[in-house]
Amino acid sequence: MSAPTAEVPAARDAVLTPFSMLVGAKVGGSDGRPVGTIADVMMAAAEGRIVYVALSVGGVVGIGERLFAVPWSAFVVDPVGGALAVRFDAAALDGRPGFDKDEWPGAPDPAFEAS
């Protein structure tokens, strides 16, 4: 997977992308290397917007997994190629605890906000 770009030229005419493409998808980093997997997409239904994406990193069968609340603005989606990437690499998660699987946050982690 190559580094993410601001837009996907071949997808300009693609109007809709299903959530089902996102949940369970592998996510690459800005360096093209694997970062994690999408655990879920949290949205504010009344407002019709994605609040954050829960990014699952590490672990085996849910054990040792860390979850991160990453804002949607940190992602690049290529619906044509079926690729999903974030605008940072795996090193950005080093030493970060993430959030508890039993206590999901109401907002994304500001550390991942697009600069």
Descriptors for this entry?
two-stranded antiparallel sheet, disordered N terminus, four-stranded antiparallel sheet, mainly beta, 31% strand, 115 residues
Walk me through what this model shows.
There is one protein chain. Helix content is 0%, strand content 31%. The protein has 115 residues and is mainly β.
What is the topological layout?
Layout: E1 26-28, E2 34-44, E3 49-57, E4 66-70, E5 75-78, E6 83-86
Antiparallel strand pairs: 1-2, 2-3, 3-4, 5-6
In short:
The chain has 115 residues and is an all-beta fold. The protein has strands at 26-28, 34-44, 49-57, 66-70, 75-78, 83-86. The protein is globular.
User: How would you state the average pLDDT, rounded?
Assistant: 82
Percent of residues in beta strands: 25-35%
- Helix-strand makeup class: mainly beta
Strands, count: 6
Helix share, percent = under 10%
Helix tally? 0
* Low-pLDDT sequence parts: 1-6
Distance between the termini: 22 Å
In the sheet with the most strands, the strands line up as 1-2-3-4
Which overall shape is indicated by the principal axes computed on the Cα atoms?
globular
Order of helices and strands: EEEEEE
Radius of gyration, taken over Cα atoms and rounded to an integer in Å: 14 Å
Largest sheet: 4 strands, antiparallel
